[in-house]
Structures are given as structure tokens and as C-alpha cells.
Amino acid sequence: MIIRPARPRDAAQIAEITNTIIRGTLITFTTTERSPEEIARDIDERGLAFQVAELDGRVVGYATYGSFRSGPGYAHSREHTILLAPEGRGRGTGRALIRALEEVARSQGVHVLVAGISAENPGAIAFHAAVGFQTVGRMPEVGHKWGRWLDLVLMQKILASE
């Protein structure tokens, strides 16, 4: 498996991973699918802060981050996303992606990475705990999808300089 910066030509495969999760799970609260064009713009804007895992020439997962909140006081905090295709799971893909993303974040002066995780995704909560994230809050019923109110678990990791 190769971990590398995303390229605009990866956008269709990233959209496939993202939209499959949007359509079929409560991992994300959104119901709006993303186009390859939107994802290509994100890749261009985020640069190294958009990493992919490639296996046998195919993108099987990605990790990226963007703003946590607006305003200069939050300039050193970012909220990240990490999503895997089924063929990327159980191979250490998530760990490799988060390590690469943390390295980029440190190099860009990011102090804190935040994860907003659906409480319906206990695997992601366990994953984040295993890679050093701490649970800092739970927001009951802030999400709504498929006629259900959903809780959001907030986790964060303070990135020590290495």
C-alpha cells in the first residue's frame, strides 16, 4: 500500500468512497453527495493536507483536514475526515493515513486535530482512541438522517512537536 498526496485525477475514486458512505451509512450525517469536480477543488486547495491510500493502483481510503471554526483564534486547529473503502479496511490503512496527515499537520503549524464522529460509528471512536485521540464531548441529537436524531462524539489530539 502507498500513502501519498491526493491528485485531482483521484477525485472520481474519492467521490465513489464518499458517496457510498453518504448513501448507505450513518457515519456521516450529510445526505448531499459530492461530485468529483468538488473533490478535485478540495484537493487543489488543501494540497498536502489531502492524503490517499493506494492499493494495486486504486484509491482505497483518504484523510484530509480543513478549518475547525472560523476566526484567527482557531488558526492552529483543524477538523479532519478519514474514510476507507471496504477493501482498505483491516489492513492498517487508517493508521497509515492518520500518521501521514499528522505529519503534514505538524509541518503546517497545526496544534490540534479534531474529529467529529457519529455515535453510530463505534469503530471510528475506537480507532481514534487507539491512535491517541481523547473524547472531549458528546453532543446529543445534533445530527438528523433517515428520520433519526444522531449524537456527535467530539475527539481531539494535541499534536506534539517531534
How would you briefly describe this protein structure?
By secondary structure, this protein is of the alpha+beta class. The protein has four helices and seven strands. The two termini are 25 Å apart.
Mind explaining what this structure looks like?
This protein has 162 residues and is α+β, with helices and mostly antiparallel strands. The chain is built from four helices and seven strands. The radius of gyration is 15 Å and the shape is globular. The model has no long low-confidence stretch (mean pLDDT 96).
Element layout with pairings:
Elements: E1 2-5, H1 11-24, H2 36-46, E2 50-55, E3 58-67, E4 77-84, H3 93-107, E5 112-118, H4 122-130, E6 134-145, E7 148-158
Parallel strand pairs: 4-5
Antiparallel strand pairs: 1-2, 2-3, 3-4, 5-7, 6-7
Helix pairs in contact: 1-2
Quick tags:
4 helices; Aminopeptidase; 7 strands; about 160 residues; 7-stranded mixed β-sheet; alpha+beta; acyltransferase activity, transferring groups other than amino-acyl groups
